[in-house]
Structures are given as structure tokens and as C-alpha cells.
Amino acid sequence: MPKRRDIVAIVLIVLPWTxxxxxxxxxxxxxLLATQKGNRPDGHSRNTFAxxxxxxxxxxxxxxVVHTEYVYSRPxxxxxxxxxxxxxxxxxxxxxxxxELTRQANTLLHVPNLHWILVEDxxxxxxxxxxxxKETGLNYTHLNVETPQNxxxxxxxxxxxxxxxxxxxxxxxxxLRETFTINSTQPGIVYFADDDNxxxxxxxxxxxxxxxxxxxxxxxxxxxxxxxxxxxTLGKVYGWKTVFDxxxxxxxxxxxxxxxxxLILSKPxxxxxxxxxxxxxxxxxxxxxxxTLSDLEPxxxxxxxxxxxxxxxxxxxxxxxxxxxxxxxNVEI
Length: 333
Prior knowledge:
Strand content: 15-25%
Number of helices: 8
Low-confidence stretches: 28-60
Shape: extended
Distance between the termini: 81 Å
């Protein structure tokens, strides 16, 4: 059994080393914890920059005010292998425009190899949309063309026979044909994505393998929970699961199909028809110039999954603004 003085000697030797290691560990971990406070709880990191200002109060106390700026990661790195998805979005000025585009941009930021073609219905490209696009960090093209007044009724009231966004989508198609040649080696997919819809990220990966025209269900259209192509046991589209005019050549919503870029380039006559087209036939006016029913490629597990929703933002009630406006009109919403 060790003597008491031997035990005391051991304690005197071990204790200083224990204290030294404890102090060293605390000095190492503290900066690490401060850094980790900039990490989001969902696992996606973001860089934070903190600036401290000193404010003197009446009693000469010093209070630290921390201003934090966040720098979020931007789209995934560009791939030389994946086809580019060209997303065409017509948009127009209204109270919820920035909110709609912000929500859509936040979805598109997660999609690799994406090019956003945003077309404003206006005489010129607006500051609001220009700044929003710049701040997203997305790869984009910003265009504008105003719908002529003779295609409208009573000022801003739209002629129901002229679907909104037709001229804007056609301008985007023309831009693609003027920018890319039919012999271009860069594969691409063209998708018409309105700014008021909701999109699953899975949808973009589904359409990326489109050879000619791919199709899938769309929710909340035609007075139904969803509309969908009919697909047989061989995986071929043979009709349309819809109530509104099911005998249309392509009884499908604008959000329910994507087209291979090469097909767009090889069919220069294919545009959305502006006149002489009944309501609900806009999609057919383009698709019948590109493919037949048998060419369609069903996606989303043979059209059994819904990956896009035709949602619509409720029009805000602004009755308290009055004629002169209660809030500052210079504040962008």
C-alpha cells in the first residue's frame, strides 16, 4: 500500500497538468462555438460578418451594437454534363409581383444548370425586376415587350381571348432561336414556368431527360384537384384526364410540359398563336407544330405524381391606402 507522502506527490504532479489542459481546451473551443453560431439549424451553412459599434449613453456606459450581414450560398456549380434548363417566365407589374418572383427564385436557386429567361410585360425593363434578378445570383436573361393595347379591352382589362403572357413567351422563343444554333452541342430543355405556380425540385430533374416533349400532371387547374395525361400500360400517352374540353389536341396546362431545345430550334415556325385560338388552346397551338400525341414522354412515374401546383396568390386588400396612399410609395414591396 503506497505511503501518504507518495499519494501527495502524485497529486501535486497531476493537478497542475490537469488545470493546464482544461484552460487550453476552453481557449480552443470558444472561437469554434462563436463560428458555429453562423450555421443554420437546417445544416446549410452561411457566412456571417459582424460589425460592432460603440454607443455612449448618458452615464458613459459602453453598449455594443452588432450589425450582422448574411451572405448566402448561390446556385450549385455549373456542370458540363447536365443539359441546361431554360425556364421562361412572363411577368407583369402588380402589388404581389416581387413576392411571387422572390418565391420562384428561391426554388430555382436549388436547380443545377438553370437559365432563367424573365420577360416583363412593359415598355422597358423595370428597376424592381432588374435589381431582383441581380441579387438572386441566378444565370438569367432579362427581356421586355409590352402587350399592345389593341389586344386589351378598356385599358388594363384583358381580352379573355388573348391569354396573358403569349407575346412574352414568344419573345423568349425568338431569343433562344437567335442565340443558339441548331448545330449547338450544348443540350437544353425549355420550360414555361409562370411566376404564380409552385414547383417541386424533383420536377426539374424529371424534365432534364426530355428527348422531344415530356408531360406530367398539374394540380389545381380546370376545376379539378389535378389534370393529367392518360398513360397506358405501355407507358404511352393516349388521351387527357380533364373535364374542360378533353378533345383539345393537347389538353394540358402550360406548366405541364417541357420541350427539348433542339426541337425548338429545328421548328422555327412553332410559336404560340395570338389570334384565332380559343381559350385553353394556347398550349395546343405550339405543341401541334412540334410533336404528335405518340411522341409525348410521360414523366412523374407515368403521370401518377403531382410535382407542380397552379397556385395563385390572393390579391391583397389595400383599401386603407386611400387615393393618395397611406404608406410610402417609395418603399418597394
